[in-house]
Structures are given as structure tokens and as C-alpha cells.
Amino acid sequence: MSAILFHCAGDSDDRIRNAVIAALPEHDIRVWPDTGERCDIRYAVVWQPPDDFFDDLDRLQAVFALAAGVDQLLDHPGLVASVPLVRLDDAGMGRKMAEYVLYGVLHAHRRFQELFSAERRAEWHDLVRPPPPLHFPIGILGAGTLATAVARRLVANGYPVSCWGTRSKSMPDGIAHRIGEDGLHSLLADCRVLVCLLPLTDATRGILNSHLFDALTDGVFLINVARGAHLVEQDLLPALNAGQLSGALLDVFNTEPLPARHPFWSDPRIIVTPHVSAPSGSRDSAAQVAASITAFEAGEQPAGLVDRTRGY
Ligand code: OXD
């Protein structure tokens, strides 16, 4: 008999587990740490599995991540590289991510930071005259499923949007696509808001650093919704102080939860949110995992199959 081993850390544990069980009624689903006979286990459905999770799972055929980012799984000490890894491909996250980023873009474009601080001083600050969205370009680092969902929403709101990636690919109408070093530099030189939606790989770790901030025009608003390790944290306050950045909306951090004494909490130019930009929906995630397992068993390639050489 083939079984699926499930592990999910966090509040949504029961909801996702029940949705996975409901979506795969024919399968024997075991919930970590009750593994039963480990030799029965063919698939694992996981979010943040512990270090010994994969021990003795000798007949494991595939791992399904309950996340869009698989950096933690690629670094997992127990997961062997020959086992295919599949990540969530949207699963309801695109809409939520688009809403979150749109909030940040409107915050920057309509200068809410300035309005809020005037409000705190009981000051009638009515001189704010934002340009039309057409003159407020947005640069998105990343060109994958979530970046595309975000870009579509921003384009629908009238913003010119460019996505940056390493390989050329066709993007939906109205979204510019830039590639390579030159593409990055032109995107940085143009944008008023910079959004990081990259996968975390060796090539992208620390990409949001003082060198990149030097290439921006002054006063850019930064949104990081990818991974904390994309940002070199000690470079952020100097870039804000120098006016290269006007503010930042950060949802991800090197250490999560963000420690109470971290300077980001108290800086009025930085909005901190607790990794909530786009939680995956339990039913959407379960449906995608079920479809991926069905595709996998039929010998087809599931959506979200990770290319380990690229790292996403
Ligand atoms: C993800 C996340 O990668 O929630 O899906 O961060």
C-alpha cells in the first residue's frame, strides 16, 4: 500500500491537513510524527518539515511543498536531490499577493506615509499632488506566477509595470519584461516602487543591497514579499537615510518572528507585516497537491515541478 506523509507547522495545520485528506480520499494519509511503516510512504506533503522528517523514507517518490518558495526544502539536510520536488503554483496566492502589493504601491503613490505623519501632528497637509499612475512606474524583480499576478493587477490600476527575470519569456500584454544585467539596471533607473518577488537562490540572496540601491533614482519605495534573505538588512536604514529609498513595506525577514528589539519595528518609514502577504488557501493548496499527485502517477509533469539546477 502506498501512503502520503503530511507535515505542516502552524495555525493552519488542521485546515490544510483536512483539505488534503478530502482531496485525496483514496490515499492513506499519515500525519507526522505517526508515520506507521516508513517503507509504505511514497509521497510527502510538507511545510517546514523537521530535520529527521525524511529519515528512512527509502521509497519516497516525490515531495509536495505547501509553499511557493522551496529554498528551505532545497537546503533540507535529509532530502535527497534525486527525489522530485513540486511547489505550489499560485494556489490562491496570486490574488492575495496582488492585493498586498497594490496596497503598498498605493501607499507610496498617494504618499500615505506623509499624510499619516501630518495627521499625527493634527496638520491639514493638503498639498499632496500625486502624479497619474501612468507616470508612476513599478519594477518587479521576478517574472514567475506570483509576479505575473501582481503585475496584472497593477497594470489594471493604470501603472506601467516591468518584470525582471533571468530568461526571456513571454509576458501577458501590457507587462514589460526585462532580462539580464542591462534589463535590471534600466528597471532600477525607472521605477518608483521596487517589488521583490524572486525565488531565493544563491544568485538572488542579498540582491537588495547598497549596490542595488545606488542604481535607483531617489525616493523609491521598496516592497519585499519574497524572502528575508533577499535583503541585506544593514543596508536598508542607510538607503532610507540617504533618500535613495522613501520607505519600505516588508513582509519577510531574516529572522521570523522579527525580534522585538529589531530597529525595523520602530522606524516610521518601514511598515513591518508578519509574513502574511499571501497565505496559501487550504482548499486551493490541497487541490493542487491532489492534481500534482494524479499527474505524477500518470507519468506527467506536474505544475510547479522544481528545477534544482535553477533553484526554483
Ligand atoms: C511561500 C510562503 O513560499 O508562504 O509560499 O512564503
Helices and strands, with pairings:
Blueprint: E1 3-8, H1 13-23, E2 28-31, E3 41-47, E4 62-65, H2 71-74, E5 85-86, H3 93-109, H4 112-120, E6 138-141, H5 145-156, E7 161-165, E8 175-179, H6 180-190, E9 193-196, H7 210-214, E10 220-224, H8 236-241, E11 245-250, H9 263-266, E12 270-272, H10 282-297
Parallel strand pairs: 1-2, 1-3, 3-4, 4-5, 6-7, 6-9, 7-8, 9-10, 10-11, 11-12
Helix pairs in contact: 1-10, 3-5
The chain binds oxalic acid.
Residues 67-69, 280 line the site of oxalic acid (OXD).
Summarize the structure in words:
It is a single chain. The chain is 30% helix and 18% strand. It has helices at residues 13-23, 71-74, 93-109, 112-120, 145-156, 180-190, 210-214, 236-241, 263-266, 282-297; strands spanning 3-8, 28-31, 41-47, 62-65, 85-86, 138-141, 161-165, 175-179, 193-196, 220-224, 245-250, 270-272. The strands form two sheets. The protein has a seven-stranded parallel sheet with strand order 8-7-6-9-10-11-12. A five-stranded parallel sheet has the order 2-1-3-4-5, covered by helices on one side. Helix 3 (93-109) packs across helix 5 (145-156). Oxalic acid (OXD) binds next to loops.
